[in-house]
Structures are given as structure tokens and as C-alpha cells.
Description:
Layout: H1 6-19, E1 32-33, H2 46-53, H3 74-87, E2 91-95, H4 98-109, E3 114-119, H5 124-133, E4 136-140, H6 145-157, E5 165-171, H7 183-193, E6 196-200, H8 216-219, H9 222-226, E7 230-234, E8 244-248, H10 250-259, H11 261-264, H12 272-285, H13 288-307, E9 311-312, E10 319-323, H14 327-339, E11 342-343, E12 346-347, E13 356-360, H15 367-382
Parallel strand pairs: 1-11, 3-4, 3-5, 5-6, 6-7
Antiparallel strand pairs: 2-8, 7-8, 9-10, 10-13, 12-13
Helix pairs in contact: 3-12, 4-5, 6-7, 13-15
The structure holds pyridoxal-5'-phosphate.
Amino acid sequence: MKVEPFWDSISKELLSIKNKNRFRETKTYKGIDFCSNDYLGLASNSTLWKLAESFDYFNRIGSTASRLVRGNSEELERFESSFADFIGAEASLVVNTGYVANAGLIDAIGNPQTIIFSDRLNHASILDGIRISGAIKKYFNHLDLDHLEVLLQKAEENEKEKDKRKIVVTETVFSMDGDIPDLKRLLRLKKHYGFVLVLDEAHSFGLFGKNGRGLVYDQLSKEEIEQIEYRVYTLGKSLGLFGGIIATSKLGRDHLVNVMRPFIFSTSLPPLIPHLAFYALDLLSKMDLERQTTLELASIFKKRMNEMGYKTTDSVSQIIPVLMDSEADALATAEILQAKGFDIRAIRPPTVETARLRISFNAKITSIQVEELLEIFKTIKENH
Length: 384
Ligand SMILES: Cc1ncc(COP(=O)(O)O)c(C=O)c1O
């Protein structure tokens, strides 16, 4: 049999994506931001802007190497220790993105002798980390800790599995659904079954918990938080920058520095980023009003959308997904909203199971803009 010419097979693959209305294109941003993860508006904060302008680069903009060579900087170390203090961990490790934080961490602690229990809807970076690690995978239904317990119990009763290291990983605010797990119950399960716990606080950091410290601070006691082995954060969302962070024990950090491949084998972040992150963290901690209004507006929006007959998820956060009947519907509705000046994007399979508009709220959105948006949704419904 002759091998199909490479570009012919790529064209066919793309055609099949197009036929399902799942073709994606990169588009520059335009319109009022109802889709980014810049939840506190720090990406365009003027204090950070001025700090960036006056930053002393010591003759280098790029970091020039990985952190184990010449790419480490005082800025990185200073930010890591202030971040660890802020979220109440012994240590933290900055890596190049949140994606790398999850994938690299899970690969570092998982292996074919390990069982990883993952919420089915965990972010791609978690799922990819599990794949790379070669660990035995067990997926529990979204937020369903009864199901998790059944899987844990089965593993306990299985001769081949009972003595293997077990890891449970979940997001705390789900990126595409905006809903949250019962962390108290998860900690009770941890106590009983003795698994290693990885929590991804990417979307809760900045909005939930005292001073924006993350959802664990809303649901858990200090003692319970101390029992969590790893918490993952990103600089790219509420902090308005770029990069990833893993908070853990000192031992955990030393281990990652020695074995985490994307940490060891990649050029580190330019020093400007942790320099700005240090100040962004301080700004974020003081934005209680912004946190409150962002979450309030999101909750009002969800309620009004439900009253109009739109389906949403059980979100309790700044992320309100509006579920659509089909990919085509999601695309067409996003186009109408974009034409009216609202930057809202359609999210489709395979990223999510059900096509949706992922509407995310941030501190710059006003109630007048929300009213305008609701008005457009009302007209769309009436013309449907
Ligand atoms: C839950 C979650 N974790 C991790 C990441 C990756 O973070 P980053 O964008 O910094 O790579 C994302 C990004 O969307 C996310 O939603």
C-alpha cells in the first residue's frame, strides 16, 4: 500500500474538522473583554506598566538559559518566596507556564507504578501530564466524589493496586464550567485513603479565599491546607502576566528542581516577569472590592440568563458558560455578539463535550455593559 502524501492527509484531517464546525482560527482581540482570564484587570494595570518601563535589565532582556544554568534571577527567587508566604506553603517553584506546571509536575510524581485519579473534566495540561507519566489512569465523573471513593475503594481491594502510590488531581474552579469541588470531603477522603493531592488553583486564585489566596482558603482550615502536597497556579490569569507556579514543601521543590523535565530543559522566564509578579501579587491581595463586584456581576448575569431560558452550568464563579445546542449555534451566536462589540468566543469539542460560549467576568466590566449584553441575548432568544 502506498503512503498517502503527507499534506494530503493533513488537508483531509482539517476538512473533517471543518465539516464538524470545529475549525479554529487565531483572531486578534477586539471588543469588550468577556472572554479573557485577566480577572482583575492586572494585565493593563498602570502601576505594573510603569514598573516595567523603569525596570533595570542589567543588560539582558532574555534570561539567557535554564534556571539551573544562568537563567535564575534574584527576581525569580524573591517572587517565589513571597508567593509561598502568601498562599501558606513552605516553598514555591516558578516554571514557564501553568501548562508546564501541571504536565511537568504530574510527570515528575507519576510513573507506571502510580495510579492517578483525575476528574474527567480536568484541564488538558493535567491530562497530558498523566499521559506522559505513563501512570495508570482512573477518571472520576465530574465533581463526583462518591465515584472517586468507589474507585479508591476498588484500588484498595485490588491486590495489584493496593500498594501503589495514589495521586488525586482536580481543579478548584473548573476552567470551562466555572464550578467547584467539595474540598472538605476531598480532604476527608485523603485522610482515609492516604493519596497525594494536587489542586489546580489557576482560576480561583485572585477571586476566592481571603485576599484572593484561592479556594482552599474558603473551604479548608490552615491544618487541612498544610496537608495538600501540591497546589498549582498560573501567572497568566488573575496576576495578568505569564508563567506557572507550583507550591509545595521544601522537599517537594528540591525534588522538582532535580527531576522535572520542562523545568530543567527550558530557558527560564525573562527577569521582568517575576519582577512584575512580585508587585502584581501585592496589588492582587488588596483587590477585595474588585473580587466582590466581579463575582456579583457574574452571578446576576447567570441568574438573568437562566430566567430567559438559556442553559448554563452550575457555575458559582466568574466563569459563566452558556450552553449551546450545537457547534454551529455557538459560532453563530458568538459572531452576533462580536459584531455588537463584545469579545465572546465559542468553545467547542474536543475542548468541551457540549459547545458553549465561555463568558468570563473581570473587574473592568461595568453593570451597564452587562445590561447591554443581556439585551442582545434577549433579542437573540426572541428571534430564534
Ligand atoms: C485549569 C488550568 N490549569 C492550567 C492552565 C494553564 O495555564 P497557562 O495558561 O499559564 O499555561 C489553564 C489554562 O487555561 C487552566 O485553565
